[in-house]
Write a structure and sequence with these properties.
InterPro entries: DUF2232. This is DUF2232 domain-containing protein. Pfam families: DUF2232. With about 260 residues, the chain is an all-alpha fold. The chain has two domains: about 150 residues, no CATH class; about 110 residues, no CATH class. α3 packs antiparallel against α4 and α5 packs parallel to α7. The chain is globular, with a radius of gyration of 22 Å.
Length: about 260
């Protein structure tokens, strides 16, 4: 009975999330709100809906918010732990080290879940925005706000002030020793890092178009390399996006005043 109630709660949350995001997407774009504001609003709706769907059933059952996810991950970890221990010729010291890593991973599950939900919500928000704009290309009767080419996309200054405030607030909470500070810090890192990473990609695209004659081929090669080496490219792209926000390299290169979407 409890399982069915939890499933019902998650289904309602997902349905409301889908409906709210569809309404918000249509209203914001037809009312000529900026694409950045629209994407952020959609991401917030998706994050709230995903959090409710994943965590509210456990809360209603009198458990922790991440109890269901924690239990599922602990089962997987237990399987790998048992498999390794039973493996023939397993070194005892190495086995102890692996067990320590698995225990650390198990403790970090709530923190990783929050960050994963934030990333997934951001991707869904941006993806829905782009798909709706693609739909509107074939339906000219729907008038929506224009969108700048990706290579010219930049973060609004007002957004940077908000992200900076979030970052400072999370650091203060971390220093205070608050129980949930680690999860909050990881979430804020995602919220701050994703826009800067996107702006870094926009700068890369700007440089490709500016310097390459065969733009399509150069883009394909560059983005494939970034995808393959994303773990290494992630931080440089964020730094590139941060430098662009401070020094407005693209606007200076074109001799234009800095702009924001």
């Amino acid at each position: 009975m409890l399982y069915s109630e939890n499933g019902y709660t998650s289904a309602v949350a997902v349905s409301l999330m889908a409906a709210a995001s569809a309404v918000a997407l249509y209203v914001l774009l037809t009312k000529r709100f900026s694409n950045t504001y629209t994407a952020l609003t959609l991401s917030g709706i998706f994050l709230l809906g995903l959090y409710v769907a994943a965590c509210l059933p456990s809360v209603l059952a009198g458990k922790g918010a991440f109890a269901a996810v924690q239990a599922a991950m602990d089962e997987i970890i237990s399987f790998y732990r048992t498999t390794f221990v039973q493996a023939a010729g397993a070194d005892a010291q190495y086995a102890a080290l692996v067990n320590e890593y698995l225990d650390t991973f198990s403790k970090a599950v709530p923190t990783m879940v929050v960050a994963a939900l934030s990333i997934f919500a951001g991707v869904m928000g941006l993806g829905n925005l782009l798909f709706f704009r693609l739909f509107c290309r074939k339906h000219k009767e729907i008038a929506i706000s224009p969108i700048r080419e990706f290579r010219f996309w930049s973060l609004p200054r007002s957004m940077m002030f908000g992200l900076f405030a979030l970052l400072v607030g999370s650091l203060i909470l971390e220093w205070s020793g608050w129980q949930y500070a680690e999860s909050l810090v990881n979430t804020v890192n995602v919220l701050v890092g994703m826009p800067l990473l996107l702006q870094g990609l926009a700068v890369v695209d700007f440089l490709i178009v500016r310097s390459a004659r065969k733009t399509a081929g150069q883009r394909a090669v560059t983005y494939v390399l970034i995808g393959v080496l994303f773990g290494l490219a992630e931080m440089p792209l964020m730094l590139l996006g941060g430098f662009e926000q401070l020094f407005h390299f693209r606007a200076r290169t074109q001799g234009l005043p800095p702009q924001s979407l």
